[in-house]
Amino acid sequence: MTEITRVPLQPVKKGSLSKIWVGALALALAGSGIAYAAMPAQVSVKTLTAGSGPSPTVDDMVLINYKGTLPDGKVFDQAKQVPMELGGVIPGFATALEKMQRGGKYTVKIPSELAYGDHAQGPIPANTDLTFEIELLDFRSKAEIEQQQRMMQQMMQMQQQQQGAAGAGAPGGAPGAAQ
DSSP strand E in 58-118: where? Predict the structure, then answer.
């Protein structure tokens, strides 16, 4: 039978236990500080007027009123009844819209990392946080919009066919017409 080698434990010196706990606490605080520093930037969405119903998803098209301002309060863009595809806007804007409901009005703060980052964009300097006032008027899924487009195309084709049929029986151009 083989015996396992035993390592004798040394007694803990007086005061060493408190040093171990202080060291463990220091490591825990350092780890949480690193974790905090590594936390991704977040979009802030403040509700001014509550909306109702579901929220749009990244695959939806929204219809909004908005005003965008720089940290000094200067308006860099604004528009009314603008259709936008969530997949085609800056990440922070899409994230904010996904937290909204139809009919609601919101103030949104987007950190530069979720806006244009270290790239200037028109009147927006690089590394600039943005603030938006957004009213979500309506939204639809891509499938709903495609269905509506197909219906509109079919209606237009039917109207063209009806106009073509009406024009073929018009007097003056038909063979055998009296002169």
Answer: 60-69, 75-85, 105-110
What's the whole-number mean pLDDT along residues 124-145?
A: 93
Is the residue at 34 inside a domain?
Answer: no
What's the pTM? 0.64
Sheet holding 44-49, edge to edge: 44-49, 105-110, 130-141, 60-69, 75-85
Q: List the domain range (segments joined by +) for residue 49.
A: 44-143
* pLDDT tens digits for range 52-91: 999 999 889 999 999 999 999 999 999 999 999 988 899 9
What is the predicted pLDDT for the residue at 130? 97
Total count of domains within the chain: 1
Q: Quick check: is 80 in a domain? A: yes
Long-range contacts of 81-87 (CB under 8 A, 24+ apart): 81/137, 85/60, 85/61, 85/142, 86/56, 86/57, 86/58, 86/59, 86/60, 86/61, 86/62, 87/58, 87/59
Bridge partners for 45 per DSSP: 108
